[in-house]
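Hey, can you fold this one?
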Amino acid sequence: MTLAPSKLATRWLFFGVILMSIALGGALLTAFDSWLRGYSFVWWLLLSVMFVFAISTNCMALLKR
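Sure. Predicted structure:
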């Protein structure tokens, strides 16, 4: 039998997912704005991919609990 994590830890993990989702939206908007202005947007897209990976791993951890 595994130990269940505390509700406080789960709550902070959920709060972190919300904050990372907001940051992902900002990164995607900045990448789109850079693309429309003709600047380099590759770094913003790489940052967005990292945010997607972090959000998905944290969501999977939340769903397994």
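The longest helix spans residues 7-37. Let me know if you want another pass with a different chain boundary.
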